[in-house]
Specification:
Layout lengths: L3 H21 L7 H23 L12 H37 L5
Length: about 110
């Protein structure tokens, strides 16, 4: 049985999937290589946010912040990017299943 925390996280991932569909369209079909490049770009954003949090990078030029506020901001960005990575992985699975079912004429 899923915990409340897991249910909340999966809900966030589904919200992000819906946002991606609104932005890029639903039923996106890419090759595995294209999907991996998209996923890699998202993982790169997670890396960037983690790096900025770890080293306490400054905020944008128009925002000041204490060291603690900077780290908190970057860790929030890190989490947001992780949700986007998970949502892209779900989109990849959806695309895979559509392609597999089309090629092998299996019911969806």
């Amino acid at each position: 049985m899923a915990s409340k925390e897991q249910i909340n996280i999966f809900g966030e991932i589904m919200e992000e999937r819906q946002r991606q569909d609104r932005k890029f369209g639903s039923n996106r079909s890419h090759t595995p290589a294209e999907w991996l490049m998209i996923l890699g770009e998202e993982v790169g954003e997670v890396n960037k946010a983690a790096l900025e949090a770890h080293f306490g990078y400054p905020l944008s030029a128009d925002r000041e912040g204490t060291p603690k506020e900077r780290v908190q901001h970057h860790f929030k960005e890190y989490r947001k990017e992780l949700v986007q990575v998970a949502a892209v992985a779900v989109a990849m699975l959806e695309s895979h299943d559509r392609a597999f079912n089309t090629v092998f004429n299996e019911e969806q």
